[in-house]
Amino acid sequence: MLEIIKQELIDNNEDYIVTKNGEVIFRSNDKLSLEFSNNVDLKVIHIIDKDTKISYKVKKNINIKLSEVFYDLKNSPIIEIEFNLEEGSKFDYTSLRRSGTVQDIKAIVNAYVKSYAYLNYKTLTTHVGDGTIDENFHLENERALVDVKNVLINTSKKKQDFNVNIYHNAKNTISNLLNYGICKNESYLTINSKGIIIQGAHKAEIRQRAKGLLLDEYSVLSANPLLEIDDFDVIANHGASIGAIDEDELYYLMSRGLTKDESEKLIVAGFINPVLAEVKEGKFQDYCLAWINSNL
Q1: Most distant CA pair in the chain: distance in Å?
Q2: 246 exposed, middle or buried (CB, 10 Å; 0-12, 13-18, 19+)?
Q3: CB count, 10 Å around CB of 196?
Q4: Which residues of the chain form beta strands (DSSP E)?
Q5: Is 129 helix (H, G, I), strand (E, B) or coil?
Q6: Which of 30, 42, 252, 294 is deepest in the core (most CB within 10 A)?
Q7: Coil, strand, or helix at residue 251?
Q8: With 70 as the cut, is the pLDDT of residue 100 above it?
Q9: Domain locations in the chain?
Q10: CA angle, corner 178, sides to 177 and 180, nearest 5?
């Protein structure tokens, strides 16, 4: 299996870790782990066939760039992922969450961000069955910052729920959230987001936006942003928009020789470009694009 994974996902001279149910089974370097005390650019590949906990820990002032793939999931697992960013650390995280043949899945994410730490969090989720994903971001100390971008593609004919909560537990904390949902094939997708600023967390800033794209007349996509503000001296805004592909755009592309299917995929690629633009070229980007195309 390792050779197949390398062929599909690992570029030459890249550091990598392969885990099974959260435990490291292969790595490019014996010193590599999921607890980071040195700067590294890393790929992490997960194989999961039972309930699993994954923990990422970033030490003080360490910079991490990590690309992650849920490569092989079986047996409808519950997956828990935890991030702990110490003071001044930076974690650039990109994850492709694809479920293969799993019929039901539940994922729970908890991120804890300390003072002057920064989490740049980007996910692309394509899932074939019913599922729930809960993400919780805790800005624990002053000057903590999170940027969150999620792309959710549901073409499974199933019901999927996605819930994001961002907790501003200290003053001068900043969060930016962008959720992009795409529905097709009579599928149902709900995107709930909630930003919480506690009393005393003055000068906190929350910005949230959700965009939805429906690719047929029978799918249902719901986006529900919510703010809970307990302090006065803050910046907080949110918005949501859901619509179908613009017929004029579709007509224009088809008039240039593209088929309807090719035109739709091109428009969708532009819709989710905010995440794809941050994925560096190479096998990981090619793998992401292949999965997007196969799920639309």
Answers
A1: 58
A2: exposed
A3: 20
A4: 15-20, 23-27, 35-36, 40-48, 52-58, 63-73, 78-85, 90-98, 104-113, 118-126, 130-139, 145-154, 159-168, 174-183, 188-197, 205-214, 220-229, 235-244
A5: coil
A6: 42
A7: helix
A8: no
A9: 2-294
A10: 150
Quote the Cα angle for 51-41-282, to 5°.
90
Contact between 279 and 293 under an 8 Å Cβ cutoff? The reply is: no
Tens digit of each residue's pLDDT (9 = 90 or more) over 219-259 = 999 999 999 999 999 999 999 999 888 888 888 889 888 88
* Inter-axis angle of helices 260-271 and 283-294, nearest 10: 130
pLDDT of residue 102: 67
N-term to C-term CA, the chain? 27
Closest CA to 272 of 163, 179, 134: 179
Per-residue confidence (pLDDT) for residue 267, from 0 to 100: 83
In whole angstroms, give the CA distance from residue 92 to residue 98: 20
Q: How far apart are CA 81 and CA 67, in angstroms?
A: 15
Rg of the chain over Cα atoms, rounded to whole angstroms, equals 19
**Rounded to an integer, what distance in angstroms lies between the CA atom of residue 42 and that of residue 279?**
13
Q: Tokens standing for 288?
A: 């992401």
Beta strand 235-244 pairing with 35-36: unpaired
* SS3 of residue 120 by DSSP: strand
